[in-house]
Design brief:
The chain is α/β, with parallel strands linked by helices. About 30% of the residues lie in helices and about 25% in strands. Strands 9-8-7-10-6-11-12-13-14-15-16 form an eleven-stranded mixed β-sheet, with helices on both faces. Strands 17-18-22-19-20-21 form a six-stranded mixed β-sheet, with helices on both faces. Helix 8 links the parallel strand 12 and strand 13. The N and C termini lie far apart (about 60 Å). The mean pLDDT is about 95.
């Protein structure tokens, strides 16, 4: 296709030759350049595409998209833009013939709840015969094809490529988790979502390689409501008004507050040995009774936003009730079967907000003892460690501090930081560096009525140490401790 066609939605300056040149492929990874490609120089956390221009020219690239002045042979078409990341997003949409226009697109943003809400929406829509794809933290689902995820929100080229595959596979609707990093790095530019959902906002992803401060984090989350047609907002969240400031979409609300368009009331917790669930009624624009096999008041909000979205698809009440009663999400308050009169739960809670919400919610089930096993990731903000430690110590009867993904730090150093926070609370604690041994300790010492929460890893099946990912799955560690 002509380069000019790929650039039709963006402002650019042609520094040499012209944009009428024919190109064979759109590439942003220098290793994938072939003869006739147009190469987009994007800057990542580790490397900058501008540094590989010599390599891509030698491989036969025909055109280069840059955001700074570069000297190149006269035979190469050079296009300059303000942001190569933004250019890649719009060019990718054009390259794959704007596949989002052929799908109904639903985006979910927020600090927590994105994954569970996404699976609930997909489950309901699938249940009524609407073929629905998913792009999220755990995996991408295209019909029967399941692809493990590397990022919550993939690079813009991958998003558009995935949309195109979904269209080809007969998918009609896609539910997508959108992270703040996705907005920050223009990964979801180039199209407008049909629906946008805001779950909640808390202090997270602030640091050297993430957001410079909370205001920037909030700003990025709010961008969705300038890039969707209808926004669905959790009205109970403290930042709801900030999120929709300067919005350009129609707004609807959900929550516990009866001011919401759709609200939950008469919430009841269900607790039996080895089982935790919740039931509630829906009021406002819909009227139905809901029961879900996933514990926690926060899952009332997750399921409520799924109900509110599916209202726009004219889904029958019975289909909603049936889909939600059977929903299971890997690594999200996931109960692991045990033989005793206690419960073991695996959850992805890996920041202060999600851990506090989880522990507070499970406290409502009145366990005889609440045990929390967790660690923190290396090469991330130390504030997260202090806060998570303090929260666990205040809300759990026993905190078992262990390793998570130490990355390029020493696990023991991370544990020491967590202990600093733990000491601010009144709960008992121990440290066991080996995660398998920490989980075994909890199982071996479990008492009737305990609820043991293994937090931080959730769906992940690896542990990252010194740049290498080693296989490790909390479910397998629980089974090993049970000797199953």
């Amino acid at each position: 296709m002509k380069l000019q066609s790929l650039l039709e939605q963006i402002d650019y300056t042609c520094l040499q030759k012209d944009a009428h040149t024919l190109v064979t492929d759109l590439v942003y990874d220098s290793r994938k350049v072939v003869e006739g490609s147009v190469f987009v120089c994007i800057k990542g956390a580790v490397s900058d595409g501008h540094d590989y221009i010599g390599e891509v020219v030698a491989k036969g690239a025909k055109a280069i998209i840059v955001e700074r002045d570069i000297e190149l042979p006269d035979s190469i078409t050079v296009i300059k833009v303000d942001s190569t990341r933004r250019a890649l997003a719009f060019m990718s949409a054009a390259y794959f013939s704007y596949p989002a226009k052929k799908l109904t697109t639903i985006a979910i943003t927020g600090t927590k709840g994105k994954t569970t809400s996404a699976y609930m929406i997909k489950s309901i829509l699938d249940n009524v015969g609407l073929k629905t794809g998913l792009i999220g933290t755990i995996e991408t689902i295209i019909g029967k094809e399941v692809i493990p995820a590397n990022n919550t929100t993939p690079e813009s080229y991958i998003i558009q490529q995935t949309f195109a595959k979904m269209v080809e596979a007969g998918v009609e609707c896609v539910v997508m988790e959108v992270s703040s990093q996705g907005f920050l790095h223009s990964r979801i530019d180039g199209f407008v979502f049909d629906y946008g959902i805001f779950t909640n906002l808390g202090y997270d992803h602030i640091g050297e390689h993430e957001h410079k401060d909370f205001d920037d984090y909030l700003r990025c989350k709010s961008m969705l409501f300038k890039q969707c047609k209808l926004g669905l907002i959790n009205i109970d969240d403290d930042y709801a008004n900030d999120i929709i400031k300067d919005h350009t979409c129609i707004i609807e609300t959900f929550g516990f507050s009866q001011k919401a368009d759709i609200y939950a009331y008469n919430v009841k917790l269900v607790h039996e040995p080895g089982y935790l669930g919740i039931a509630y009624q829906v009021g406002g624009l819909m009227d139905l009774d809901v029961s879900i096999d996933i514990p926690g008041r926060f899952n009332v909000l997750n399921s409520l936003c799924a109900i509110a979205i599916c209202r726009h698809f004219n889904v029958d009440k019975s289909a909603i009730i049936n889909a939600l009663s059977n929903i299971k999400v890997r690594g999200r308050v996931e109960l692991v079967p045990v033989k005793g009169d206690y419960s073991v739960m695996i959850d992805y809670a890996h920041n202060a907000m999600s851990l506090e919400s989880l522990l507070t919610t499970i406290r409502e089930y009145k366990p005889k003892r609440l045990v929390c096993v967790f660690g923190c990731g290396g090469n991330r903000s130390k504030d997260r460690r202090f806060l998570m430690g303090e929260i666990s110590s205040k809300l759990a009867d026993l905190t078992v501090i262990t390793s998570d993904n130490p990355r390029y730090e020493e696990a023991e150093d991370i544990i020491k930081d967590i202990v600093t926070g733990v000491k601010k609370g009144s709960g008992k604690y121990i440290t066991i560096t080996d995660r398998g041994e920490a989980i075994k300790y909890c199982i071996d010492n479990a008492k009737d009525g305990d609820i043991i929460i293994i937090a931080g890893k959730g769906h992940e099946n690896y542990q990252e140490i010194k740049g290498v990912k080693y296989h490790m799955d909390d479910r397998e560690l629980v089974r090993a401790a049970l000797k199953l």
